[in-house]
Each structure stands twice: as C-alpha cells, then as structure tokens.
Amino acid sequence: MEYFRARLIGSLLSIVAAMTLIGCDAPNDVPASNNASESENIAENELISHPPEGYSVSVSGQSLNDGQVHLELRTNIPGTIELMASISLADQAPDDTWIGKNERVRLVNGTGQATFDVSDLPTGQYEVEASFYPRWGFQDEESRSSGVNESLEHSHPISLKGSGESSELVAQRNEDQRWVIENVIMGSEWDPSFWRNRFGEWEEFSVTTRNPDIISNYYFESLDMTLIVNTLKDEVVVWRMGRDGL
Fold first, then answer.
1. What would the pLDDT profile of 171-227 be if each residue is shown by its tens digit?
2. Measuring CA to CA, which residue among 75, 55, 70 is closest to residue 128?
3. How many domains does the chain divide into?
4. Hey, which of 98, 132, 139, 180 has its CA 20 to 30 A from 174?
5. Which helix or strand (DSSP H or E) is residue 147 part of?
6. What distance in Å separates the CA atoms of residue 227 and residue 206, rounded to the nearest whole number?
7. Average pLDDT taken over every residue of the chain
8. 168 lies in a domain?
9. Burial environment of residue 239 by CB neighbours within 10 A (0 to 12, 13 to 18, 19 or more)
10. Statement to judge: residues 153 and 194 lie in one domain
C-alpha cells in the first residue's frame, strides 16, 4: 500500500513540474508574436517610398500659316498620361475674363500633340503651356507607378497674329459682356441713354417672329451681343450673343 501511494505522489509531482515548465515558456511566446508583428509593420513602411525626382513635361509651339498653332508635347513619365495644353494671352490678371484656348491631350510613351485654331484670338503675346495634374492625369498603372504627386508645368512665349483685333479691345469686350450676363435679366429696365453712354450706338434690325410694334432687336457691336427689348414696357426681354434676334 505504501508502495502504490509513493508512486501516485511521484506521478502527481511529475505532472505539476511539467505544467510549471509549460507556464514558464508561455511568456516567451508572447514577445515572439509581437516581434513578428513589428517586423511586418517595418516591412510595410519600407514599401512606402517618396516619389522620385526628375520627372517633367515640356511643350513647344509652332504657328502655322492657316491661323493654327501646332503643339508638340513631351514627358519622361512612363506609360500613358493626360495633361492640359493651353494657349493663353500673356499677363492676364486672375480676375480677368480669360482669353485663350485649352484642351486635354493624351501622351503615350512620352509623346503627344495638339493643334489649336487661333484665328479668332486677338493679336498679341501668348503663353503656350503644358500642365500635368496627378489627380486626373494618370491613365494606366505604369504611369501611376512613377509616384509623381505634384503638378508639373512648362511654358514658353509665342506671338500670334490671330484675328487682327487688339488684345485690349477683346479684353474690354469680354469684361462688358460679363457685366451684361451678370446684371441684365428678363424685365430689366431699358434705358436708351444708359446703354448708349456705356456701350455706344446700336444697330436695330428686323423682327421676324414677334410683333415688331412691341419687340425690337438691338445689336451692340462693342459687345457683340443683341438686346431684345419690349419697347411698349421699356423692358429687356432677353440678351443673346452675336447678332441674333427674334
């Protein structure tokens, strides 16, 4: 009986010792798990790199004989991108009515081109410009992998003959048109002396779709706009761009 009791006590002691050893190993497992997680975080952070320097866009413009300007566009961004190509009158203030033309142009493997009709732009000094914007400029994964995250621009001056009108005259007309658009609505008072003093004489032309005893078409050359007036009420009915009446 004493023999079996001794063996039972020995077995219990062996189990307790084994559990103690397992308990001692457990804390070492936790730091090992944390260390692995930290290593993964470090690896992930190392994959986040700053975009490389040295990427650029460029544009060159050539005036053609038929009132057009041809642009050649270049970039060292790989893949396919889109950028904004523009021709704008030089030295415009931020609050001026913009004079120029622009369009989005696609560049594949570093090259692209565009042609603008500038025959309706005033004579003067212009800036030809190419502008790349990461927000919408990337068109494939190859270009996106470049990591460019800032706008890229390039410009150079160009002289245009255009329409032959002076840039000052066109700028003034644009400002006057903007005033009409922002201030004249249906029912606005028609005051002939005000309009004559501010915008000069008008040309009246025939009314074909309304009663000419009530409605009149007044074309202002300085504005390149037509005012359609109810002369019975001395009210503006509507304004239209160009020589376009009722």
1. 899 999 999 999 999 999 999 999 999 999 999 999 999 999 999 999 999 999 999
2. 70
3. 2
4. 132
5. none
6. 13
7. 84
8. no
9. buried
10. no
